Amino acid sequence: MGEQCRHNGIEHFKEAIKCLYKDTPPSQREVLGAAFSKILEKHGFGAAGRLTDAYIKAGLVLLAASALSQARSSKGMQSLEARLLRCAAEIASSLPSELEHCLKAVEFQAARLILDKNILLHDLFGTVYRDAMGELGERKSYATYYTEPPAAHLLATMALHALASRPGGCSRSLRVADFACGTGMLLLAAYRAALSTICREEECKELIEGMHGFEAQSFSAALALTSLLLLEPDAESGPHVVVMPLDVDRGLLGSLELLEGWPAEFPAYFDLVIMNPPFTSPTGRSLRAGKKMFGFAGRRSAGLLARYREIVRRHLLPGFRLLVDKFAQETGIGGLGAYLSRVWRAGEALAFLYLAYSRVRPGGVVAFVLPKSLLTGASWLPARILLASELRVEYVVVSCDPEKGYGFSIDAHDSEVLIVARRGPSLEAGPVMFVNILHKPSSLEEAEILAKTLVQAGGKTVKAGGAEALVSKVPYRRLVEHIDNWGVFVALPDPGLVEEILDMLTNGVIKLDSTSVKIPIARLGDIASSIGVDRHQFHDEFKPSPRGWLPGLLGGGEELRSRMMVKPNTMLEARRRGEEIFGRHAGRVLLPDRIRWNTAHAVSLYSTTPLLANMFYTARLKAGREAEKALVYWLNTTWGILSVLIHRGETEGAWSSIKMWQWRRLPVLDVTSLDPGKLKALAHAFDKHSGRRLRRIPQQFSRDPARVDRGRLAIDLDLLKALEPGLDAGMAEKLLTHLYSRVASALGTWLNLRS
Q: Which residues does residue 242 pair with via DSSP β-bridges, in sequence order?
């Protein structure tokens, strides 16, 4: 009921904002819209991209200014607040007399807002701004995505509990920063969480005075400041919202410029840095504004990219080099320095994380919404080292809710992760809580209760109203052991199943209840002589052509992936270094660079002849064809599928990417050290099943033993019989059907499939 009332309340605000446009005669709309746009630009709030944008922005300025005028005196007015009020006055004076009722409607809603400030905590201004404008080009080109209000309050509540649990707790003079605050959702959430954690419903103006927002867009900054000011209108010295321009002409990167020098007027350090930073990366080839880094600058983005590379070179690389070297020395893990060259590829979000680390005090907390590639990406490995050493990660939260989404940002379709970490290598490294949300909270209240329940979680399942989550407490040492991939700990909504696969890959034993089969395990990169090429290099060096002379494989559709065996489907014409590359990397073992798990049939494919492909890496092993067939067979057994699945890099739910470096590090059956008889038996099993048309992977498993896919069962039984000839096949089949039930349940939950 509360959520419905809130929704209806926001609708009233939206209708008041839209009044200006709807009630302006169509013949006058363009003229008045141009006037609004000119006024907005004059006061530094940006020119409107579309006619309706000018009206929505103008309406929001009027609403914000009216609420501030009714709630606050002019004493101690901030410059951004004063600019907003001047802009509103000029917009109001430009309104024709027939729109005076719209102005009164806005003033009425402003008065309602002052009486019910709780609606601000739902990011009122951001919600109206976003929903009224729809798919706003400006918002997408800045890579600006608003945090879902429940997710914001979940993150903030966990962060405040992490702060409160530090030695000495936290005081009412708490200093909180968001270096990409947008319309202020996360600062609002931090205020609410701090109020209930520190003040416990007492009057506590000091909290709002400690809020510091930094934002590239003046209009969003003004809305953030308005929301914070309205929460505590009588606060004497705060909140503080600063515009940090993202400027093409001056080559400024917004808040990232703070890495170059810290202004004396800002607090040197903060107790909490909470953020949902821009995620765009400079490595994509897409020219679309929402995909390209600094897409708002169009063809002039090259200058900002150069500036970004300079910031990375001057600040991130030296800082991460020290952290990586120290971590390698303390843990004895080698080869980590090679990943430093990839730091710039992670994009702005990693730079913002480093900025937060540099500005959070010892014992302070950072709380971030980040792309899920943080857990698995090569370019993010230095960040994982940072989170495992100087910032001790405490909570890692992902969504496994296909209905409400795998991310925590509105309109963003990619999978995301919530991270809470506390600064200080001297802190005792306790277990890290990995959380897989099965049903995301629908309200602020559910989010707050879920967070508090997670903090106190003793069991594996946590519920709060309609929200539900699975919890795994992972010892710190295991984060170090799996520093190349933390995604394994939340790979599936069945922590026990994931743990069994990790145990198999670590100890080399397939366990089925009391039955066990020993197997040799090695990283794929250690048994392969080469793995390559990626799709970009493929398209740069080869062209499908009737005149081509090199066999190739194009595409990766269902029909092509429905069997383990494939044949070339095109001939390639080589460019420049193409023939040399083909000679070094053409192979029979095909490893996908992308998998959509709800439509894939087979994981790995085997080609009748060596080739190169645009959607598969080709691997050559340090052994013959029998070993190659055995490896492909292993990767298509249940254990191979699960091994790949838990090591995937998740892009958007079922859509996953598996990069070349991830394949190299993947633990697999060591087919190069198998007994010759067992190797021959596996190669024979491959020949037996390679032409079989497989069902989609989720359909190969079932909770009902009577509906188990017989092809899946035959593949797995033949693997076990090849590795352990004396195995009781009847008992093995019974145990496999139990395993399939668990796999079906996990996949069904993750992919929203019916049993």
A: 214
CA dist 33 and 536 (Å) reads: 45
pLDDT range class, residue 285, cuts 50, 70, 90: very low
Sorted by sequence, the CB contacts under 8 Å of residue 477 that are 6+ apart come out as: none
Please, what is the angle between helix 185-194 and helix 218-231, to 10°?
20
Per DSSP, the three-state class of 292 is coil
- C-alpha 688/C-alpha 629 separation (Å) is 11
Q: For position 502, what pLDDT does the model report?
A: 95
162, 144 Cβ separation under 8 angstroms: no
Mean pLDDT of the chain: 89
3-state secondary structure of 208: helix
Residue 95 has pLDDT above 50, yes or no: yes
**3-class SS of residue 492:** coil
Count CB neighbours of 302 within 10 A.
11
What letter represents residue 336's amino acid? L
Domain with CATH 3.40.50 in the chain: 146-392
Topology (CATH) of 146-392: Rossmann fold (3.40.50)
Among 499, 450, 467, smallest CA distance to 746 is for 499
How far the first Cα of the chain sits from its last, in Å, is: 32
Residue among 58, 70, 72, 69 nearest 16 (CA): 58
pLDDT for 287 equals 43
- The C-alpha atoms of residue 293 and residue 19 are separated, in whole angstroms, by 36
pTM for the full model? 0.91
Q: Does residue 122 contact residue 149 with C-beta atoms inside 8 Å?
A: yes
Beta-bridge partner residues of 595: 656
CA atoms of 36 and 14, how far apart (whole Å): 18
Beta-carbon contacts of residue 214 (< 8 Å; ≥ 6 apart): 177, 178, 179, 180, 181, 241, 242, 244, 254, 255, 258
Residue 6 pLDDT greater than 60, yes or no:
no
Neighbours of 284 (CB within 10 A): 13
The letter for the amino acid at 448 is E
Amino acid at 708: V
Confidence band, pLDDT 50/70/90 cuts, at residue 289: very low
Q: Which residues make beta-bridge pairs with 437?
A: 399, 469
Contact 660, 618 (CB under 8 A): no
Higher pLDDT, 753 or 607: 607
Q: What gap in Å lies between CA 685 and CA 688, rounded to an integer? A: 5
Is residue 598 within 8 Å of residue 696, measured between CB atoms? yes
531 class by beta-carbon count within 10 Å (0-12 exposed, 13-18 middle, 19+ buried): buried
Residue 348 CA, chain-centre distance (Å), reads: 13
Beta bridge partners of 564: none
d(CA 376, CA 385): 12
How would you class 583 by CB atoms within 10 Å of its CB: exposed for 0-12, middle for 13-18, buried for 19 or more?
A: exposed
Three-state SS for 443? coil
Helices (H) and strands (E) in the chain, counts: 27, 27
For 496-506, b/e burial (b = at least 16 CB within 10 A) is ebbebbbebbe
The β-bridge partners of 370 are 417
